[in-house]
Amino acid sequence: MSDSIWAVLPAAGVGSRMQADRPKQYLPLKGRFLLDHTLECVLSYPSIEKAVVVLSEDDPYWPDSQFASHSDVIRAEGGSERCHSVLNGLCALEGIASDTDWVAVHDIARPCLRHSDLDLLFDGLGDSGAILASPTRDTMKRGTLQADGSVVIDHTVERDQLWHALTPQVFRLGELRTALERALADGFEVTDEASAIEYAGGRPRLVSGRADNIKVTRPEDLALAELFLSQH
Ligand SMILES: Nc1ccn([C@@H]2O[C@H](COP(=O)(O)OP(=O)(O)OP(=O)(O)O)[C@@H](O)[C@H]2O)c(=O)n1
Ligand SMILES: C[C@](O)(CO)[C@H](O)COP(=O)(O)O
């Protein structure tokens, strides 16, 4: 790829679903912070120039990261939701990166990413960018919440071409920043970068990636991440 590639790593979440005593990105995983595994993968990928790590303003753990003083790490301040943190991260690249450069947004909470998947992703970029994704393996149901708090099946979702959106998600820096700003200004809910690009009329590609590129979200995910990392 001729254009430069930059990374933005949203890492300002509180990890409430993890029910831990600290944000999940700072939980121990194979002898180091979970986020240090993610940073090692991203910063060791030759084509990535620098990584913007988006941290909570009051993050007390970061100075103990192995990458706290790394020369290819740029810090940015997190926002109230993931999309705001990502936008802050994109803005931190202004004056450093060109609007036509590629930016790869990757959840810090996905430590099992492999370089082989990054190769596939960057080789598979379309004009509107691309995201790593994994085809659903299970029958998918749409539920309806009942008055008594139970959930009943409303219908079975057509499974053909149904994918789990993963990260990294890769777009042109200026295009993504503009799409995010517009979606947020319009009050459109943005849970991943592709949804903002879609809202702006873009049609990002889905690049099939490994299903073990999990986002550590719930307590049981940590042991799974440890198993997957042991297979690297
Ligand atoms: N305001 C926020 C919220 C989330 N994130 C980051 O976005 C990624 C995906 O979000 P998620 O898995 O939901 O993390 P949390 O928001 O921390 O988890 P929870 O929803 O359980 O609180 C994580 O790397 C998280 O650190 C962020 O940078 N800024
Ligand atoms: C970006 C993402 O990881 C793609 O699946 C997901 O949307 C993040 O959602 P979260 O609720 O912020 O974890």
UniProtKB/TrEMBL annotation:
Assigned keywords, A-Z: Isoprene biosynthesis, Nucleotidyltransferase, Transferase
Enzymatic reactions: 2-C-methyl-D-erythritol 4-phosphate + CTP + H(+) = 4-CDP-2-C-methyl-D-erythritol + diphosphate
Entry keyword Thylakoid: no
Matches recorded under CDD domains: CDP-ME_synthetase
A molecular function (GO) term: 2-C-methyl-D-erythritol 4-phosphate cytidylyltransferase activity
Residues the record marks as site: Positions MEP for the nucleophilic attack: 159, 215
The EC number(s) this enzyme carries: 2.7.7.60
Pathway(s) of this molecule: Isoprenoid biosynthesis; isopentenyl diphosphate biosynthesis via DXP pathway; isopentenyl diphosphate from 1-deoxy-D-xylulose 5-phosphate: step 2/6
InterPro entries: IspD, IspD/TarI, IspD/TarI_cytidylyltransf_bact, Nucleotide-diphossugar_trans
A Pfam family recorded for this sequence: IspD
GO BP annotation list: isopentenyl diphosphate biosynthetic process, methylerythritol 4-phosphate pathway
Sites annotated Transition state stabilizer: 17, 24
Domain of life: Bacteria
Family to which the UniProt record says this protein belongs: Belongs to the IspD/TarI cytidylyltransferase family. IspD subfamily.
General function of this protein: Catalyzes the formation of 4-diphosphocytidyl-2-C-methyl-D-erythritol from CTP and 2-C-methyl-D-erythritol 4-phosphate (MEP).
NCBIfam families xrefs: ispD
HAMAP family according to UniProt: IspD (MF_00108)
Name this polypeptide is given: 2-C-methyl-D-erythritol 4-phosphate cytidylyltransferase
Organism: Thalassolituus maritimus
Gene it is expressed from: ispD
